[in-house]
Amino acid sequence: MNELNLASTPRDTSLPDARVRRRSLIAACSAHAVHDGLTDVIYVLLPIWQSQFAISYAMVGLLRGSYSGMMAGFQLLASRLARRWGRERMLIGGTALAGCAYLVAGQAGGLPVLLVALLLGGLGASTQHPLASSLVTDAHEQGGGVKEALAQYNFAGDIGKTLIPGLVGLLLVVVSWETSATLIGLLGLAAAAMLWWLIPARSSAAAVKAKQARAVTGAGSPGGLLALQFTGTLDSAVRMGFLTFLPFLLKSKGAGTAGIGIALSLLFVGGAFGKLLCGYLGARIGMMKTVWLTESATALLILAAVWLPLSGLMLMLPLLGLALNGTSSVLYGVVPDLAGPDKRDHAFALFYTGTIGGGALAPIVFGYLGDVAGIPVATMTLAALLLLTLPLSWRVQRGLNTACKP
């Protein structure tokens, strides 16, 4: 009876589908904002932990690396477990685990407990990127607008990176870090509860429809996906390497601590809007044209950052941030097109693992080059390395052409 009613009133079917897309996107954006905020708030807490526990810089790096390492290393496992236990259940459980980890950190009386808490937090965070990305993709595939929706999803992550660490920084003025960590944990648990309410029950049905559609439209392109993996890894490596060197470039040009802070804010604001705008641009003019535009502009602006005086560098930083971060949204947007049927969770997990891994290794490798040859040479090498993404994006486009064939 319900099937007859739905069939006789097509308008009634479109409204629920639109509601599923909207609620799925809100859920994924909320998860991205909270998880990225919980990940980057560690930067605010690290100096306090160093002072309280009297630890070395190497141990500070271990604390930071424990969270990001667990997050990167377990994304593939999270995508596999989602097939058995369900994507929604894994995403909600991972968010709750990240919140519980901060509750444990808030009670930490020593370094071992704090380290365990951060490992648990990274484990919980490993579920977010691959599963929330797939949730957005499957919900929007039938109605269109996948790339635009993923651009909004990526933009939400930068909002979380900006708001949550900033609010915690203000909160630390009036309360202890233990209380702040406890409140962060409660935020994670509240986000998990919100996801349980937000993620629509019909999202699983939408995923089934999406798989059926993919089986008809194409089987993906393993070669194109591999080229995309290398493109994303290089893009992330250059981005993280440049962010590492930028404060030193600014300092060499006469910027003080306040000036460096303002410069980074300008770069991050441009980057946040770059993720949103370039995602839409990629949907309009295509992946390869957008990547060639953004990566070429990024390479030229990085070279300009070496030679420009401080005032010129400050003026161009929002534009540099837009190009530097914008490419990532374009690349995320084509992962679903290159993944084979029923392999999107795995493809997103693989892609995010590579980009996070490349971003983690780049400061070490190029930091060594900076010690040997100087910061300007290392920065210009980053710009040259970025040009390798141009032929790679051409290979990705060939993969897209193949994947879209019936």
From TrEMBL:
PROSITE patterns: MFS (PS50850). It comes from the Bacteria. Gene3D superfamilies: MFS general substrate transporter like domains (1.20.1250.20). SUPFAM superfamilies: MFS general substrate transporter. Keywords: Membrane, Transmembrane, Transmembrane helix. Pfam families: MFS_1. InterPro entries: MFS, MFS_dom, MFS_trans_sf. Residues 24-401 form the Major facilitator superfamily (MFS) profile domain. The keyword Transmembrane helix applies. The chain crosses the membrane at residues 54-78, 90-120, 181-201, 213-234, 254-278, 290-310, 316-335, 347-369, 375-394. This is Membrane protein.
